[in-house]
Amino acid sequence: MQVLDEVTDELADLVRSASRVAVLTGAGISAESGVPTFREAQTGLWEQFSAEDLATPEAFDQAPALVWTWYRWRQALLLQVDPNPGHAALARWQHQLAATGGDLSIITQNVDDLHERSGARVLAHLHGSIFDHRCVDCTKPADLPAPHYDGFAHPPEPAEPPACEACGGSLRPGVVWFGEMLPMNAFDSASAAIRSADLVVVAGTSGIVQPAASLPLLALESGTPLVEVNPEETDISDAMDYCLRGPSGTMLPAVADAAL
Ligand code: OAD
Questions:
Q1: Proportion of the chain above pLDDT 70, given as a percent
Q2: Which candidate, 211, 212, 239, 231, places its Cα nearest to that of 86?
Q3: Which of 77, 101, 134, 194 has the fewest beta carbons closer than 10 A?
Q4: Is 118 in the pocket of ligand 1 (CB under 6 A)?
């Protein structure tokens, strides 16, 4: 494993020669847009809770208003931020490979839409979308108006989740919570993209949450090179061929430039 603070000539050659690229992204790629990651301390109203405690079916059963309001607050936050240069670099690289008969598959654990808003196509949202809602009882999807809060410094009043128009059950966010199954289609297409890739990039994930964290390791079976982009060492760094130690907003543009 090589730990790098810039794209070396050797890595640039590898990137340039890759025509089928799979990229797994996590919360770190949205950090420079102003979206807090999952394992950093929360602030304000939420500082006494960890994100991991709120993102569970048990938390929603016990405190539905708290969990619902946390997700609505995160939705409102997401609507006020923009994609950053890391998202833009992946979109640019994806378009460029598509124009030359190649392919770049984005597989994300993020429930935000910042990849899409940067002009990229996402193959798989492994943990669903924060902008989707469905009934906990009959599973019917529901459309809700965008949330709005006046200033993020002022905590929103916890509000009960709305009732499903079809059956009166409670609505929930369309995300995957800890302990829940991943959408099968998303997981299968992500596995296929990694197995058929000739380069796998892992950006902004701690590599802790399974089964998403083991997806890039499928590349080990075929000897496909693995590149990590993260300012910190992670649980999966040891499996990487190259670790680019820096923020994705700087490192991914450098990687995408090398592909030109
Ligand atoms: P985490 O919050 O676990 O990890 C974020 C990672 O991003 C860490 O490894 C940071 O070092 C890294 N990071 C921070 N700033 C960065 C930057 N500017 N550029 C690049 N990397 C940076 O987030 P995930 O790995 O995405 O699941 O977490 C995986 C899943 O656990 C989430 O999808 C969510 C969470 O709980 C569910 O809700 C089911």
A1: 94
A2: 231
A3: 101
A4: no
Chain mean position to CA 57: 20
Q: What is the pTM of this model?
A: 0.95
Q: Identify the bridge partners of residue 4 per DSSP, sorted by sequence position.
A: 244
Residue 39 has pLDDT above 70, yes or no: yes
* Cβ 216 under 6 angstroms from ligand 1: no
Q: What is the pLDDT of residues 101-124, one digit of tens each?
A: 999 999 999 999 999 999 999 999
Instruction: Tell me the pLDDT tens digit for each residue of 68-95.
Output: 998 998 898 899 999 999 999 999 999 9
Cα–Cα dist 137/168, whole Å? 9
Tell me how far apart the alpha carbons of residues 260 and 256 are, in angstroms, rounded to a whole number.
Answer: 7
Ligand 1 pocket test, pick from 210, 230, 252 with the greatest ligand atom count within 8 Å of Cβ, gives: 230
Distances (CA, A) of 45 to 9, 73, 101: 47, 11, 49
Ligand 1 centre to CA of 52 (Å) is 12
Q: What is the pLDDT of residue 151?
A: 59
C-alpha torsion sign, points 240, 31, 193, 213: positive
Rg of the chain over Cα atoms, rounded to whole angstroms, equals: 19
Q: Which two tokens stand for residue 193?
A: 């993209």
Q: How far apart are CA 204 and CA 234, in angstroms?
A: 10
CATH homologous superfamily of 1-35+83-127+181-260 equals TPP-binding domain (3.40.50.1220)
